[in-house]
Amino acid sequence: MLSYAFRRLLSTIPVLWIAVTACFFVLRLAPGGPFDGERSLPPAILQNLAAHYNLDKPLIQQYLYYVGDLLRGDLGPSFSSEDFNVAQQIMIGLPYTFTLGMTAFALAIIIGVAVGCLGALYQNKMPDYVLGAMILVGVVFPNFLIAPILQLVFGIQLAWLPVGGWGDGSLKYLVLPVVVMALPHAGRISRITRGSMIEVMNQNFIRTAKAKGIGPRLTVMRHALKPAMMPVVSYLGPAASYLLTGSLVVESIFGLPGIGRYFINAALNRDYGMVLGTVIFYMVLIVFLNLIVDIAYAWLDPKVRNR
Amino acid sequence: MKKRLRSLRKMGFSMYHFSKKFLATAMFGALLACSAHAATINIHNGGDPQSLDPQKLSGDWENRIAGDIFEGLVTEDAKVKPIPGQAESWTVSDDGRVYTFKLRDGIKWSDGQPVTAGDFVFAFQRLMDPKAAADYAYLQYTIKNAEKINKGEIADANQLGVKAIDDKTLEITLENPTPYFLDSLTHYTAYPLPKHLVEAKGADWVKIGTIVTNGPYKPVEWVPGSHVTTAKNDQYYGTADLKIDGAKFFVLEDQEAALKRYRAGEFDILTDFPTDQYAWMQKNLPGQAHVAPFSGLYYYVINSQTEPTKDKRVRQALSMAINREVIGPQILGTGELPAYSWVPPGTANYDEPAYVSWKDEPYKQKVEEAKKLLTEAGFGPDKPLTLQLKYNTNDNHKRIAVAIAAMWKPLGVNVELVNAETKVHYDQLQRGDVQVGRAGWLADYNDPDNFLNLLVTGVPMNYGRWSNAEYDKLIKDGNLEKDMKKRAEMFKQAEKIALDDSAALPIYYYVSKNVVSPKISGFEDNVKDIHRTRWLSIKE
């Protein structure tokens, strides 16, 4: 298992290199540069800035500099922050993003699986319809619509929760952003769980379990849940990587620190170092999470384990 | 805080021993007094600062923080009039080129070290150092040899026209007499730096915990993406007069969300608001939304080098057919004033700007004349004029572009709207890849030169590549003119030339948009939209 994991990680290095290289050059092809803006800078100033960031060197040399720094573990400077380099910015934002992402992830699983199971057990009955319709709201409405509505209702009308900000990081500040982040995933997880559960409940071994006289609760918990989770787990990998890389919308509506905004803002600002830094970070994270999903598969399904 | 209060109260009630009860009550009282005393203000500041180093900034959100924690020789009062800052007085030589500043007694950095003339020399030399690559260094090019040093033409930084005569006396020599020089000293590029610290710590001097400042406040916390917190600087000479103990500058780009947080009491001041909410705010938050003239111009660049806008008649027709009166009140909804001049009215060192000659004609007549001009230029029903109008992606720019395209339609002009993200848009403008394009200018310093310079031949921001030798000469000579009246006249003459030739299409003068809680007093609307915390106070 360990050598398998190690090989998987090793195989990502060439992929990472190709992605960094492609990203590096494609970025430079994009029109506009990091110092273009409402206020054009005089040529002398632009030259000073270009020299400061080595942008006046031939592109291939810039690339070699970058890869050299990267091999030393240095992600380089960010044009949009003088006081924190790319790695520092990511490290500062990470705890916030992970706290939000993990909480949302857990919430999405709990709600999604519970609603999905109930839907399957009460297939085409009242609870199935009601819960299904409720959860669909989370899937159908985009987060940039849900978030302001929740702010208005719970932050202003009822004044139960803060409208935004991280505050002291206590639960009340997390509730709204976490719910907004978790809802769409909870919806999808519940649909997958429901479908898979219905299928599993019709399998022979469940019929056997029922025939043995095991009660419905035990049948579900002990026999049906684990196999029914297989498709859910394969969805959780991408969902986790989505949630753990943060959300631009949630961060900018709730005014939260985090890394979600970096990628898009950096691309718009032609902050070359930051774009590359986030690409590398995302790739490593996604590879790692996929690995975990594969391991979880093996644990859930003996067939995979013995293969 | 709330939790602690409640438990204390419980303590007070449950204790039967009088002295203990008394003690608890006293503690409770002290706590209350304490909370009333800690007057902090929560400001919605928009973006995250690029740095706390005043020489690495370029945005107004950065200025809000920098101007609270640093102070230059000259500073702004609540109405942004330049007033003595770190300098208590100054004299100007007869030729207007040499300024001698006398520093205040006892001014200190927040670590207790004295602020000396040497700190100013150090800061200005660093600003001009090409290796430091300060974005905004050019703002102080008025200082002798500054431009040459910044361009690398002079290697010796001591050639810069900033000299410390002694610890308390600073002499600044300019290239030319510059009427807005004192005003430009209030800018963050003119703040002193703690030489002792920058030399000892290098680039790390700005880190929280290390940084020392000389302004009314000092930064104590920075959570990137969330907020910067400041606290009173006890070493500041005016610290006894400060009514606010500290500020929190919040990062939040979503203006709708910011307004909601304001309504929930999480913010005391919003530094911008969504224009479409203005009417709602006037009704529901009366007196809290501040809209005031702001020294800035929203305009359309028009290419005067390429067909068809190379023809002056085409440019003028397009300019005349823009119904500026409806843009502020109806399209934006915040009442921006229509612009018929290049320099916004109210700019210092200038009286009334020159206006376009057709300013006061009724709109119908303007359209008729515009039609005539286009016909003369050879355009008509059989040869319609087709134009590309470019703007950077933004709801308001889009609304205005759509409206203006509709205003040009009756002239038989077909407009193709093209939008791009900001970087791409400005890259196109700079390369001259534009027929008509949206641009804006916010004044760096309060002087007509700041606007007029945008139309001088060869200036990078002259996107329309308009060029007029007489105009260039008037601006150049005007800047050398010592007599302020004559200078203003020359500038006005130049402005008239540009307007008569429709060098660009001014559309409206910017307004500043703030929302200020009724708890705050001392907030004065002003043309620079700068509101230093030291002038504010807050009722709990």
TrEMBL record, chain A:
Cellular component GO terms held in the UniProt record: plasma membrane
InterPro entries: MetI-like, MetI-like_sf
Membrane topology annotation: Multi-pass membrane protein
The UniProt record lists the keyword Transmembrane: yes
Domain of life: Bacteria
Name of the protein in its database record: ABC transporter permease subunit
An individual GO BP term: transmembrane transport
Methyltransferase in keyword set: no
Gene3D superfamilies: MetI-like
Family the entry assigns: Belongs to the binding-protein-dependent transport system permease family.
Keywords, in A-Z order: Cell membrane, Membrane, Transmembrane, Transmembrane helix, Transport
Subcellular localization, as worded in the UniProt entry: Cell membrane
Main location: membrane
ABC transmembrane type-1 domain mapped to chain residues: 94-293
Segments traversing the membrane: 12-30, 98-122, 129-150, 170-187, 232-254, 274-300
